[in-house]
Amino acid sequence: MQTAIYLLPYLVLNAVCHGTQEARHGITEEILSVLDAAASENSGAAVHGISSGQSEVCIQAVFTLLDNLGQWADDVEQEITLSQSFQTSGSRKQASKLKDQGPDPLADPDQLLVQCKYVSELLAAIPKVTLAKASFRCHAYARSLMYFESHVRGKSGSFNPAAERSGIFEDEDVSFLMEIYSCLDEPDGLSGLACLRKSLSLQDQLLINKKAGNWAEVLTSCEQALQMEPTSVQRHSDVLNCLLNMCHLQAMVTHVDGLISRIPQYKKTWCMQGVQAAWRLGRWDLMNEYLNGAVEEGLLCSSSESNASFDMDVAKILQAMMRKDQFSVAEELALSKQALIASLAAAGMDSYIRAYPFVVKLHMLRELEDFHILLVDNSFLEKSFHLGDPGFSKVIENWENRLRFTQPSLWAREPLLAFRRLVFGASGLGSQVGNCWLQYAKLCRLASHYETANRAILEAQASGAPNVHIEKAKLLWSTRRSDGAIAELQQSLLNMPVEVVGSAAISSITSLSLVPLNPPPLLCDTQALNENRDIAKTLLLYSRWIHYTGQKQKEDVISLYSRVRELQPKWEKGFFYMAKYCDEVLADARRRQEESSELSPRIIPSTSAIVASTNLNTEKRWWSSLPDVLLFYAKGLHRGHKILFQALPRLLTLWFDFGSFYQRSGSSSNKELKNVHGKVMSIMRGCLKDLPTYQWLTVLPQLVSRICHQNEEIVRLVKHIITSVLRQYPQQALWIMAAVSKSTVPSRREAAAEIIQAARKGSSQGNGGNNLFVQFASLIDHLIRLCFHTGQPKSRTINISTEFSALKRMMPLGIIMPIQQSLTVCLPTYDMNLTDALTSDIFSATDLPSISGIADEAEILSSLQRPKKTVLMVNQDGIILVIFVTKVKLFFGVFRLFFWVVMASNWPFLCKPKDDLRKDARMMEFTAMINRLLSKYPESRRRKLYIRTFAVIPLTEDCGMVEWVPHTRGLRHILQDIYINCGKFDRQKTNPQIKRIYDHCQGKMPEEEMLKNKILPMFPPVFHKWFLNTFSEPAAWFRARVAYAHTTAVWSMVGHIVGLGDRHGENILFDSTTGDCVHVDFSCLFDKGLQLEKPELVPFRLTQNMIDGLGITGYEGIFLRVCEITLSLLRTHRETLMSVLETFIHDPLVEWTKSHKSSGVEVQNPHAQRAISNIEARLQGVVVGVGAAPSLPLAVEGQARRLIAEAVSHKNLGKMYVWWMPWF
């Protein structure tokens, strides 16, 4: 069978290319007969005379055949077009090379064109609608979407406001697309389609509410539909399905019994659905009754069959277990597996995503098998287990581990948890049953299925599960019922033992007293420790929500946080949230006191002003509480590193800010301030002593930016910290220190030299470590020379052996290659019993390849800055690195020539002169922080949002090295090739023609009209073709397009926040293995694009082709929703992000220092301050830095919509610089 499927495309291609017209017609008819049978409404995806599983294999074989034929035709057309393009541009040599590499190098081009025509005619004869419906019936939903989108695009176009015209869709097409999306588990896309309909049908509303988990609304819609069609079997089936998803299992059973008596001809259907509720309820008499009814002859509703057939198999296995029928159990298990295997084989030919539901069902069967083995010869109704039983405990532990490896989605885990509830329930383990209900409730909550989550919580409560109140409160909080959530936790805390919660905490909760009472001593046995942990979790959640909503006085909140710390003194979260709250209180006090001191000399005091002034005078100075804030952050960091990336940058920011304030205040006159300063310095010295060095490594750029702080005591301690990092992690720290050691500001350069000298003296690696420092300094000098080396006039290469012979002689080196994985800190698993956290090794030696050699020749890239591209390669052992500088593509040449050079083990780098790469390095730090936040925020974690990052190593303030991102290609090159294939672009003529149009229309018509009527008609949007050509497998195509939408949306929002400009087609790359959008070249940061001769008016690039790549819904749906999620996250964590960006203020860019010369000590840089204030405004919802007038602060949704409107505006795009190419 496998051999036949493999050979089929070759045989058919041969018959189509070399056979008769009759043979081609016969092949087309045969393919259509298989697809028509699969696409028909009542087929159940079965071809006549063949079983359902085998039928799916047949249909999948047809899909694979069509994929191969389409790929062959595309390859032939592309090679012929590119060959002709090179011939017209005079590159005969390239044309001949391409011809030799074509699908059939011996074939005549004219003959190939004829064969290609035959294949294209066969493919065109198969309607896309038929393919889409056949794919949908066999659950190949990604394939169905690909075909149907192609059909709709050809008929109606796509939604694309940035293009010449935008498509208008028929409602029935949108409805089918919505059905496909609902099966793809992509609710964001579903909401986008809803925007394209003129009006939503009842079925559309059902789909949207089902995906959103609004089952109460689904039930209402089903009831409404039943009023219109009282005898509709499909509608009754929908109601039953809705009750099942709402966990209203008893109501479902009652409904099934009623339907059996009222519509008996469909008894088979009702019984099959009734089985789903009966085995979950443990109603074995009902289950037997429904199983008997399900095997009787009768009419069947096709939609219910696919949903309930597996549950029927599970029920039959459970029935056999109850009867102690060993043979029947084994037989039913075998039959169930057999029924899945054929479908699994067909799905596996397509993609793992399509196969995964069958894998989950096999997982379930395996657990049934495990349970059967445990029972031996007993019925599970007779034999009970207890948690102390070693065999039972081992099986449960195994199940828990297996569950963790499943996809954390509702549909995958619900049957597994239902079965476990049954197992625990049969043994009377109520708390374990309740725990399963709690896990289910959490899954429902995270999927926004709030009604079902509430039902599961009620069941958990009835089963006696511990800590139900926390999940219930989280559900209330998720549904924006904050008062109810807080009340739930408050009631739970008041019901807990007073001696554990603490009298002071109880007083704060009830607000009866603000007098702190001495808490009683804590119990120390294991049960008490667990109880303390649960109470501490509840109290912390309560405190955080009280803090967020502002429902209590400051003293009450501090009292609550303090009790959390007392209950769990080794818990980092208690200290971190206490620090965060006190930090906010401190910031508020500082703002009020500074405003008061500014206003007081100018205002005649009124009575109310005097009262306010008196209150401020009696209030402690803001800086008096700073030592406590720093101490709480420090203690949290000492206990773990889950909050490292939020806490340590903030701790440093507070320290540095206070140091500046202390220096400005004339410290000698204020004894109290001097005392606070002493405490602060003592705390920071304690941090240096107690915190693991790897924690300081994560904030090294922030520390390095402050080595010229005004406060000399701070400078001394900063130097000590950096020195300790250099001694323990010299390989990583030296690369980070490279730029500052070559700074043009003497004080910065001298401070760096002093630190490096101190680190060399005390290096833990002895003479070897000392040698490393010497080698590194020499290597940096050579790399800087290489960056700026111009080579001979008109020469494309540099001879390393002759011109850099000293560099050649240095090899091999013991210096690591500065790739991202070698420079990124991998946090160790934190063990509370760890005696010496300082010894934690966060870099494994085998993961750190080192430089071993360098090739003889380098080629200079053809661009204004003449950068050199070096390719670093690893030897076979994976440890030693060899630097090879190879011949690579030119900036304005054909990109695909690059790929034959680079193999899997290479790490190419770009050595860039005349560019301040500190901006790029800071941008990578900023995006690394955003990635950490994205991985924690539930909405972004569920969608697996991230930004692609890479290593950037500034060598000086105007040159450096950038890690090359593999498998990527620029937008301009991708689109240019597609337009060449379509006959829309000529390498010699098209660009001059566009320039003439721009010049001719200047001053004669508005830019908007010129772009829309003259330029855009020449270039219809085509970027969707890149996804179709690059990702031939439909599931990979869909994944790539979703990844493109996600990464583009995240980058768009992040880029706007930091004022990222110069987003032309060569600075936006796309990964041909994942579809990811990757931005490079951050030289135009902080709104510099608005200062160009032709200002970059759009907030980010969302041209017609960028929208085209998102699918026919355009930016509606996935892109817009991810924009909203990203903006929400950025705005929520603005303080954390600003602590990373503020390094710019203290390590000013070259372009800022030209007009503002720096002295030996830090000064406030106006350019940096302006850039930071713009970022802060955007993080508050103000639209600044785009072509439109600034706005008042907008909500997240309003800000996202407004920015997209500015980005797609023809008015803005028409004013862009011509070679920014707004038509691409």
**How many strands, which pairing sense, and closed or not: the largest β-sheet?**
6 strands, mixed
> What percent of residues are in strands?
under 5%
Strand order of the largest sheet: 2-5-4-6-8-7
Secondary structure tally, helices? 57
Domain FATC: 1192-1224
EC number: 2.7.11.1
Pfam families: FAT, FATC, HEAT_ATR, M-HEAT_ATR, PI3_PI4_kinase
Signal peptide: 1-19
Mind explaining what this structure looks like?
With 1224 residues, this protein is mostly helical. Helices cover 64% and strands 4% of the residues. It contains 57 helices and eleven strands. Strands 2-5-4-6-8-7 form a six-stranded mixed sheet. A three-stranded antiparallel sheet has the order 9-10-11. Strands 1-3 form a two-stranded antiparallel ribbon. The chain is globular and about 95 Å long. It starts with a helix and ends in a 10-residue tail after the last helix.
Keywords for this entry:
11 strands, 4% strand, 1224 residues, 3-stranded antiparallel β-sheet, 64% helix, 57 helices, mainly alpha, 6-stranded mixed β-sheet
